[in-house]
Amino acid sequence: MAAQDVLGQTARLASSSALLQVLFRVITFGLNAFTLRYLSRELIGVVNVRLTLLYSTVVFLAREAFRRACLSGSAKRNWAKTINLLWLTVPLGVFWSLILGLVWLHLLEVPDPSVVPHYQAGVVAFGLSAIIELLGEPFWVLAQVHLFVRLKVIAESLSVVSKCILTVTLVILYPHWGLYIFSLAQLLYVSVLVMCYVIYFVVFLGSPEATKKSFPVARVKALLPSFVEDETFVNLKEARLTWSFFKQSFLKQILTEGERYVMTFLNVLNFGDQGVYDIVNNLGSLVARFIFSPIEESFYVFFAKVLERGKTVKDQKQDDVAMAANVLELLLKLVLLIGFTITVFGYAYSQLALDIYGGSMLSSGTGPDLLRCYSLYVLFLAVNGVTECFTFALMCKEEVDRYNFVMLALSFIFLCISYFLTHWYGSVGFILANCFNMGIRIAHSTHYIYHYFRESTHRPLTGLLPSPALLLVYIISAVVTAFSEVLFCCDKGWMARLIHISTGALCLAATLVVMFCTETKLIHFVRSQFLSRYLKKGT
C-alpha cells in the first residue's frame, strides 16, 4: 500500500475514532451527572477508581505489548503465527485477573457494605470482563492493521450505548443493587464488543469482498490457534519484540494510572474524595482525550507502516521519510494548538463548568483548582501522545529495552512525587505529579526524534513552535478571561455568567481567526486529511 494511501486511511481512522470518542465522553459525562443524583460519591469512587483500575490493569498488562508488536510492520506476514501470538493474551489475562483479584479482595481496604454493597461480586465481574474482552484481541488487531474503520466505530458505539442503557435502567429501578448494577453493565459492554468483531469476521471471511481485497485469512477456523509441524508456534521476532514491550508496558501502566494506584494502595483519599476526583478528571479530559487518543492510536499504525522499525533515516525510502516528517510536524502543531486552547480557556472557566455540571458539591473546595491544573496537564498530554506515538513506532528492540530502564526510574520517582505532593496539596498533587511525569517523557521522545532526523534535512520538531502572533493572542485571551472570571463569575447571577461566557467566546473567535491566518499549512492538512470526506458529503 502506498504511503499516501496509508496516510489517507489513517487520517480517516483517526477522525472516525475521534467522533467515536466524542460519543463515549458525552455519554460518560451525562451518565456521571445522572448517577450523581441517584448514587453516593463513595459508590462512584469505588466503581470509577478501584474496580476500573482492576479492569484496565489486567487488560493493559495482558495485551498492550502484543498490540504494539503485532501492529508494527507490513500487513503481509505469516498471520497464522501472529494470531497464535495474540491468543496468548487470554491465558495471560486469566493469570493477571486471578493474581490482582486476590489483591483487590484480601489486601486492599474493603468499602463499608452499608455504603458500597456487593464489593466482592464487583471484583469478580470486572476481572471476568477483562478476560472476555481479550477473547476478541486477534479480531481487533486484524481489523486495525487492515484499517477497518467502520467496524471499530460500530462495535464500540454499540457496546457503549448498551452499557449506558442498562446502567441508567438499573439505577432507576434498582438503586439498592449497588455494584451489581455496574458489574452487569461492564459484562454487557465487553460481550457486545467482542461479539461485534466475531460476527463481522464470520460474515466477512470467504465473502467476495474478502477475496477482492486478497485478505490474508481465508476461513474463520484460521482465526483460532493452530500448530504446524516443523515450525515454531509463533513468530520469534514478534515474540521477542512483545517481551520488550511487555517489560515497558508494566512501567507505562504505572505512569498512566499512577494516581489511581496511589489512591488505591496508599489510601491518601477516602472513597468519596476519589469519586469527586474521578468526576473532575472525566470532565477535564472530555475534550482532550477524544482527540489525542485516536490520533496517537491511528498514527502509530501510520508511522509503523511507512517507516521500517530499527532502520536509520538514511536507510529508509526518502519519499516516505519526507512524508512522515511532514505529518509528524503538522500533528505536533495540531495537538499543541488544541492543548494551548484548552489550557488558556480552561483556567478561567473551570469553576463555571463545575458549578453547572455538579453544583456546589464540585464547584466549592478543591474542584476548580483540580480542573485548572488539569487544563495545564492537557497540554502535556497533547504533545506526549504524538511524540511517543512516533518514537514507539520506530524504536528497535534494543532501544525499547534501554527505554525500559528509563521508565523504571521514572516510575519510582513518579510514585514518590505523587505521594508527597498529595500529602501537601491534596488531590491537586496528583495532577502536578502527572505534569512532571509527562514532561520527562516528552523530553525523552523529542530527543529521540531530534536524533533520528539529525542526518536529514527534515526538522519536524518545529511543529512545537506556534507563530508569534498566535502566541500573543493566547496571552491576551488568558489575561482577559481571567479578569472576566474575577468580575462576573460565579456567584453574581446568570446575567453575569452570560457576560463571562460571551467574553470567552469573543476571545476564542479571535484566536481561531488568527490561527486560520497564520497556520495555513496546518489548516490545509486538517481539511484534506481529517475533514475531506465530511466536506465532500456536504458539497
TrEMBL record:
UniProt pathway: Protein modification; protein glycosylation
Spans traversing the lipid bilayer: 12-31, 43-62, 83-107, 119-141, 153-174, 180-205, 330-354, 374-396, 403-421, 427-443, 464-488, 494-517
Membrane topology: Multi-pass membrane protein
GO terms (BP aspect): dolichol-linked oligosaccharide biosynthetic process; glycolipid translocation
One family name in Pfam for this protein: Rft-1
Compartments where located: Endoplasmic reticulum membrane
Keyword Transmembrane helix part of the UniProt annotation: yes
GO cellular component, one term: endoplasmic reticulum membrane
Sorted UniProt keywords: Endoplasmic reticulum, Membrane, Transmembrane, Transmembrane helix
Protein role: Intramembrane glycolipid transporter that operates in the biosynthetic pathway of dolichol-linked oligosaccharides, the glycan precursors employed in protein asparagine (N)-glycosylation. The sequential addition of sugars to dolichol pyrophosphate produces dolichol-linked oligosaccharides containing fourteen sugars, including two GlcNAcs, nine mannoses and three glucoses. Once assembled, the oligosaccharide is transferred from the lipid to nascent proteins by oligosaccharyltransferases.
Family: Belongs to the RFT1 family.
Protein name: Protein RFT1 homolog
Organism listed in the record: Cyanistes caeruleus
Name of the gene this protein is made from: RFT1
